[in-house]
Prior knowledge:
Number of domains: 1
Number of strands: 4
Helix content: 25-40%
Radius of gyration: 16 Å
Shape: globular
Oligomer: single chain
Distance between the termini: 21 Å
Amino acid sequence: MKDCNQCGKCCIKYGDGALSATKEEIDLWELFNPEIFKFVKNNDIWFDPDSGAKLKKCPFLEMASKTKPLDPNIYTCSIYLDRPEDCRHYPSLIAEMVRDECEMIEIIDLENPKQAQVKLDLLMKDSRPSSAS
Length: 133
């Protein structure tokens, strides 16, 4: 499994309404991160604070500046330390990564998905519980 290259596929795919935040996260944003909380509406995330319209992408996904025009797009999360639990838990399964065309997957991972899952769980141990739990 390769290291994440920040292609942004996961954030782009799920940032348009497929994510949710817990009530606890929303409460903490309201108290300590009003710049995040302003994008919450009725305990649902990523709404335009002015119009109230549901956003088509996460407002905190940012594309890094390129040094060369042909360089690949690199994405960052401006609320990385305060991102929703849904974001912290992704990716959770090898099958999910394959479905989403995650660029971390290598041929060897496809040939031995159980071993790849163990490797993924180890990589993600600081973000989420193991898939085996």
